[in-house]
Each structure stands twice: as C-alpha cells, then as structure tokens.
C-alpha cells in the first residue's frame, strides 16, 4: 500500500465536532456505564494538531484522545477485556497493582458489577489518581515503590502477588494482572487498532505510543503491521528509570527477566527516550496553543513525534492515553506565567 500524503483520507478522520463521540448515546439508554466502552462503531475521537504545535510541512499529526473514554483513559479498554476474562467466586475480591489509570477503570467497572476491589499503588502515583480511587471506594494499598520499578516481584506488584498466592487469604483475591495478561494487548488488537485504521481510511504512515505494560503498542502495532507492514511503530519511554511519567516504563537496558512480558519488541521500528521536562513542557504547549488538555505521558509522545530523531513526513497517529485532570499538581511545578 503506498504511503499517503498529509491530507489523504481526511474526510474519514473523526474530528472534535458536536455529536461525534456520543451520537449513539442519543439513540438508546444504556443499562450500565460499562456499555459505553469504545468500539469500532463508537471510537474515541481524533484531532489534528495545528501548525502552532506542529511546524513540520507535509507531516499530518493526529492525536487519538483516549481521555474521552468513560473512566478517563485508554486503560478502560484493558480493564474491560481483563474483567470479561475473569471468573470470580461469590466471596472473592479483585486486587491489582496500578499506577492509577487501570486501577480507576477497574474500580469503576467493579462497582458497576458489585465486586469488591483493592488497588496497590506506588507512592509516586499522582495525588489526583489516589483521590479518584478513594472516591470510587476502592481500598487503597500505598506501597513504597518507584513508578518504574526494576524488579517486577517487588513493590506494588509484589504485594498483589503475595495476596493472590498466600494461603493465609484462602483464595480470596484474584488479580487481572495487566502486566502479564495477554488480554491487555488483545483489547488493542481488537479495538484500538481497527478504530485507527477505520478513522484514517488506512492512510497512516506511523504510530506512536508510550510504553508501560506494552499492551497498547503491541496490540495496535500488530494490527497495523498486518494491515500494512510499512507502517512504522515507534515506542516512547522515559529518558531515566527515575522519572515522573506515571504509567510509562524505561525498557532500554532492562535485563530479559525484567522486560515487560506482553511487549513484542519485534514490532518496534524506533524507540524514543523523553525527559520529564520535555514531556511536561509538550503537554503544556498543546494545551496553550491548541486547547487540548492531556497528561504528561501524552506530552512525552508529542515530544517524540515532533522533536525526536524520527521521520517527519506523511501521516502519524499518536495515542493520548489520558487527560490533564489527574496531573494538575504534577504540572504545577512546570508552569510559568
């Protein structure tokens, strides 16, 4: 399939216009908030960056706004697929380690299904995310842990592992285990990838996503490569293992035993490292120039796509994993008059 120019297939791109996202909701009453999950027929919207943010000629940059999911992030997709794959007994409860977004989606869905849930979070998790989890009534287990831990059996993940496996709890706890559950990637192979292909009319040259569990980039990347092997898949990681980009993981230099289990490195054509300052600055810039309010992980993806050492031609789609509301306090120290 030949590469498309920056305006090819523009009519197929969902724009932020009245009624685009919620057209279906005016036609029926949903039985549960869970039924509002995105699908190929009810996708999250895309918006094109203006030249104020994207100065490159012949480079069409489209941002897929996953923060417009019912629970505020791309993890809505993962949570739904994982929950649908679980079989819980009458006296069992969910428990999951999370930097916030997966926990919020799981907690909301668990509430809708009348299922108790506990979430283990690293101490560096933004306060807004912790507040939302408490608001949802989830029992919060705060763990002295880095946002980007080296050892997957320690910290929040280690606590959850012990709760699931310990005989002392008598099998009470079940974990969806987003870090190793193949349904994480499957949610994006079946949902996010086909949405992107349909919204762009197949006219896409590259795709950028941050790397955390590896589910998004592996699922979307696999689908897009199947549709057109020439599409470049670019991963975005923090520049340092010690960072403030909640949900992202630095994979450069990781030993094999600590590599994200569901990340398929063979799909990656490029890997771009971004500093905290670059990520937060890009998030602030797109808010002030285009009015698009995104989280700092989206800022990292924006910086990589606009300033990283990767091609700046054709059409690219960037995943915006969530919105800015959960990071107001984290953004504060980067703000200037």
What's this model, at a glance?
The chain contains nine helices and ten strands.
Describe what you observe in this structure.
With 337 residues, this protein is α/β, with parallel strands linked by helices. The chain has 2 domains: 10-71 and 182-332, Rossmann fold, CATH 3.40.50; 75-174, Rossmann fold (3-Layer(aba) Sandwich), CATH 3.40.50. It is built from 9 helices and 10 strands. A 6-stranded mixed β-sheet has the order 1-2-10-7-8-9. Helix 3 (127-135) links the parallel strand 4 and strand 5. The longest helix has 18 residues, at 182-199. The radius of gyration is 19 Å and the shape is globular.
Number of domains: 2
Tell me about the biggest sheet? 6 strands, mixed
Question: What is the overall shape?
Answer: globular
Low-confidence stretches: 1-23
Count of beta strands: 10
Helix count equals 9
Distance between the termini: 47 Å
Please bin the fraction of helical residues. 25-40%
pLDDT averaged residue by residue: 89
Report strand order across the widest sheet. Answer: 1-2-10-7-8-9
The CATH level-2 architecture of the largest domain is identified as 3-Layer(aba) Sandwich
Strand content: 15-25%
Question: What Rg do the Cα atoms give?
Answer: 19 Å
At the first level of CATH, what is the class of the largest domain? Alpha Beta
CATH topology of the largest domain: Rossmann fold
Order of helices and strands: EEHEHEHEHEHEHEEHHEH
Structural classification: alpha/beta
């Amino acid at each position: 399939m030949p590469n498309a120019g920056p305006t090819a297939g523009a009519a197929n791109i969902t724009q932020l216009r009245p009624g685009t996202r919620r057209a279906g909701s005016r036609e029926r009453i949903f039985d549960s908030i869970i039924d509002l999950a995105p699908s190929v027929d009810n996708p999250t919207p895309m918006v094109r960056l203006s030249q104020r943010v994207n100065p490159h000629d012949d480079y069409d940059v489209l941002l897929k706004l996953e923060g417009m999911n019912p629970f505020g992030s791309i993890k809505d997709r993962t949570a739904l697929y994982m929950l649908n794959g679980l079989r819980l007994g009458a006296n069992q409860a969910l428990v999951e380690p999370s930097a916030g977004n997966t926990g919020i989606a799981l907690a909301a869905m668990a509430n809708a299904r009348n299922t108790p849930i506990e979430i283990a979070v690293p101490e560096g998790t933004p306060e807004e995310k912790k507040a939302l989890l408490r608001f949802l009534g989830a029992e919060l287990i705060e763990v002295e842990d880095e946002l980007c831990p080296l050892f997957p059996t320690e910290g929040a993940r280690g606590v959850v592992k012990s709760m699931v496996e310990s005989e002392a709890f008598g099998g009470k706890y079940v974990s969806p285990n987003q870090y190793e559950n193949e349904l994480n990637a499957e949610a994006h192979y079946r949902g996010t990838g086909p949405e992107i292909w349909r919204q762009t009319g197949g006219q896409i040259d590259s795709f950028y996503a941050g790397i955390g569990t590896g589910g998004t980039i592996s699922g979307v990347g696999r689908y897009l490569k199947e549709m057109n092997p020439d599409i470049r898949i670019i991963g975005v990681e923090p520049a340092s293992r010690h960072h403030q980009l909640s949900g992202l993981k630095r994979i450069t230099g990781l030993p094999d035993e600590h590599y994200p289990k569901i990340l398929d490195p063979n799909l990656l054509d490029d890997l771009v490292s971004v500093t905290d300052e670059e990520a937060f600055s890009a998030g602030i810039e797109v808010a002030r120039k285009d009015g698009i309010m995104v989280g700092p992980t989206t800022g990292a993806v924006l910086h990589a796509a606009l300033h990283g050492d990767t091609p700046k031609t054709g059409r690219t789609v960037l995943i915006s994993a969530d919105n800015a509301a959960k990071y107001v306090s984290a953004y504060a120290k980067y703000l200037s008059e």
